[in-house]
Specification:
124 residues, 1 helix, disordered C terminus
Length: 124
């Protein structure tokens, strides 16, 4: 699989848990997110190519969204153990994104994404 992304992912400041459904268990926490997928940091390896339904439980700080939790079918695109840690980086590709899920993700990204600063230029 190519490491080239079609869409830039956003690193997030919020502590956002991701759960596997059926049976419900914690997969980890979102490291970055797009409308196409997410990267999750977790303590357990997940099989590449595995299809599953996941639940992302966004912070309740978004009054315009109520309780913004989404349930979404996803495929494990890749899973790698982080060097010198006990954690795994898991790349999920969203299989089907409803308009409501898209609206929640976009609102969450607007609220919590890291604001990247432009590099400082030398003053002459």
């Amino acid at each position: 699989m190519s490491d080239h992304r079609k869409e830039e992912r956003e690193n997030l400041k919020a502590f956002t848990p991701v759960f596997r459904l059926n049976p419900r268990s914690v997969l980890g926490y979102i490291e970055d997110l797009t409308l196409r997928g997410a990267m999750v940091i977790g303590e357990k390896s997940v099989e590449n190519g595995k299809q599953m339904t996941i639940s992302i439980e966004f912070s309740g700080d978004l009054p315009e969204l109520g309780t913004p939790n989404i349930v979404i079918p996803a495929r494990v695109a890749w899973c790698r153990k982080e060097e010198n840690t006990n954690y795994f980086m898991i790349g999920f590709e969203f299989v089907e994104l409803t308009p409501e899920n898209e609206r929640i993700i976009e609102a969450f990204l607007r609220r919590y994404k890291f604001r990247r600063q432009a590099p400082m230029k030398d003053v002459e």
